[in-house]
């Protein structure tokens, strides 16, 4: 079970690392697009400065913004290098053995169908539940009991209710008769071990239910958020394009372009983050179910 747990954790780390790398690549491309626009506008401003249409201070402010964007690009490239090295560690390689990874969010695909609810039996494959089950079965055997179907038969969903979680396995086991012979000390030890194992099993299962519910709930909200971010990015891109056109015609100051540019950068990065969050929350569901909801 420790091996399977390590495999699931490593798989999640590799996928989340790839998502992080894709996010950085998307941010890099956005910054490069902004840089190209800024360079174009600085060329126009240089001509206007020669004609006396703008002040040297306004032109200097544009150049400063250009330098800031170039610095931001270098910073993102540095982050990409560090993330690539981290990926090398996950894959058991030295950083020098890694080739550059050109990865975009479009290259990462969600499962064709993400369920809105799942049978509770699916969490039985989680390594922590398997281990807790082994411990409880051993304790019940020592106490002369045979406990079966310990897992609550409920539907796992984003809206898992408190009443569905109200499950007292410890109480039901304690009420069962304990048949360990006449030795009082042995009986007390068996009862104590049984209570401890039952409490651990119940706590582990309830934690697993919460993990799955949280992941399903997050995926549901992710879809709603991404739709809003797509619209935000579209409108801010249109606003930036209009501000650029008005600046080129001389009917709007550069400050309007700068404001629209910042709005677009923020909305573009927020959209990238929303897309990435949907992927990472799907990975969280995979982990919460101990390896996914499909047949291995």
Description:
It is a single chain. This protein is an all-alpha fold and 296 residues long. Helices cover 72% and strands 2% of the residues. It has helices spanning 2-51, 56-90, 127-142, 162-165, 169-175, 184-249, 254-288; strands spanning 117-119, 155-157. A two-stranded antiparallel sheet has the order 1-2. Helix 1 runs antiparallel to helix 7 (254-288) and helix 3 runs antiparallel to helix 6. The protein is elongated. The mean pLDDT is 84.
Number of helices: 7
Instruction: Report the sheet-strand fraction.
Output: under 5%
Query: Segments where pLDDT lies below 50 for 5+ residues?
Result: none
Shape: elongated
Overall mean pLDDT stands at: 84
- Going across the major beta sheet, what is the strand order? 1-2
Quick synopsis:
With 296 residues, this protein is mainly alpha-helical. The protein is built from seven helices and two strands, in the order ααβαβαααα. It has a two-stranded antiparallel ribbon.
Write the layout of secondary structure elements.
Layout lengths: L1 H50 L4 H35 L26 E3 L7 H16 L12 E3 L4 H4 L3 H7 L8 H66 L4 H35 L8
Antiparallel strand pairs: 1-2
Helix pairs in contact: 1-2, 1-7, 3-6, 5-6, 6-7
Jot down its keywords.
72% helix, elongated, 2% strand, mainly alpha, two-stranded antiparallel ribbon, 296 residues
